[in-house]
Amino acid sequence: MENRVTRFLYDNSPPFFRNFSASIFGLVKKHTRYTGDFGYWLEFFSNNRLASHEELLAIQNKKLREQLRIASTEVPFYQSLFSKLSIDISEINSINDLHKLPILEKEQIRKAGWDLVNKRWPKNDIKSYYTSGSTGTPLMIPRPKYIEQMEYAFLQARHFGKELANQPYSSFTGVEVIPAKNSKPPFWVDNWANNQRVYSVFHISDKNLPYYYESLNKRYSKYILGHPSAIFHIANFLLKNNLKLDNPPDYIFCSSEELQPQYREAIEQAFGSEIRNRWGQSEFIGSITTRDCGHLHYDMDYSILEFETVETKDDGSIIAEIISTNVLDTVWPLIRYRTGDLVEYHPDDKCHKGYPGKVIRAIHGRTGSFFTLPNGTRISNISVIAKKCRDIKLMQVVQNEEGSIIVNVVPEQGYSRESEKVILESFRSKVGTDLRINIKLVNDIQKTKSGKYLYIVNNL
Fold this sequence. Notes:
- This protein is of the alpha/beta class and 460 residues long.
- It contains twelve helices and 21 strands.
- It has helices spanning 4-11, 15-33, 38-47, 53-74, 76-84, 106-112, 145-159, 209-218, 228-240, 261-271, 383-386, 417-431, and strands spanning 126-131, 139-144, 169-173, 188-191, 196-200, 223-226, 251-254, 274-279, 288-290, 296-298, 304-312, 318-325, 337-345, 359-360, 362-363, 371-372, 378-379, 392-401, 404-411, 436-441, 456-458.
- The strands form five sheets. It has a nine-stranded mixed β-sheet with strand order 4-5-3-6-7-8-9-10-14. Strands 11-12-13-15 form a four-stranded antiparallel β-sheet, with no helix packed on it. The chain has a four-stranded mixed β-sheet with strand order 20-19-18-21, with helices on one face.
- Strand 6, helix 9 (228-240) and strand 7 (251-254) form a beta-alpha-beta unit.
- Helix 4 (53-74) crosses helix 5.
- The longest helix has 22 residues, at 53-74.
- The radius of gyration is 22 Å and the shape is globular.
- It starts with a helix and ends with a strand.
- The relative contact order is 0.12.
């Protein structure tokens, strides 16, 4: 478990010790993810890979009825809600009846806390995580072991594929693997237990990009996964300098941000790899993945997704917000949860291979903007910073001039000078001391025209 002492020791240790620590952590996570119910879920998702729309619909309806029964009898939040609204769950027999239930907002989840957790589930099997998501809003996620095993079984069965298990790979995510103060390589650590090299996205800059290229070229990766904005910076460097990897990866898996067209074009051109995209959330409440037909498909056996129209474009395509019901998680049921993420689809689009699940043209939920440090380093994700901050509703970084940022904070009741100190310390630990940081308390953060909060706004 990380605390200030272990973090200090890690940050001030030589690279070998960091690799050793990352490998021990990786070994523990590997045991958690790939034991227990992993085999059951692997079979479940593998068997459903070629299931028909009707078969998947039957699974959804059955799981929905089970989830509602559990929620109404074992989850205090829903017991109170259904009683207050006089909801009779016997009247909800299929996904066509979901409109009879209210939409669940993130603020309700935050306030409910443990009242949203199945009271019959042993608490010692539940681990609490904190995530900020794309809005910068901290959210507690109670997660039992079997749900983590479910997620990784799905990834192996339907996203990465069994053939990539134990293959060497590289990742570019928001994991804090290198101290912000470090100005010399390595800007990565090796997780020997999982054959993984974890790169710091916080140290990507024009000055450091040659080191990233050298590392990627020396160590072969069967695939790369991570934030598309970070991988784009690597790709752009390769293209500008007419460089190629001697042994490029076969696949690049993008997640956590919008895979913008310019990102895809540069990544494909620089690496020559097959790109697979996926939408999911830390709450494990839904999945949209790229299938071998080349389309993004809604994975009907993972959850129930509703698409609430936000805008209809001139060509008939629809921008819609995702409303999700996580029918497989009976410990933390989120029924008709407003995810805040947007997708684009056209009602007439059909998959040429006949795969079920709505064909999604684009995921617009997460836009990978960035702010720049005085040394040129680009920071494209504040989730690892925001999740450590308490007593805030929303957080957003705005950069109007070089060398400084404004951190807009919508305070929660209980916000204090200590809260502000934690925010400042969290930023300093990731971006160093050269950047001027101005924390500004605001009543709300303005949404974009498409109804989204941007967690980073760069006006340079």
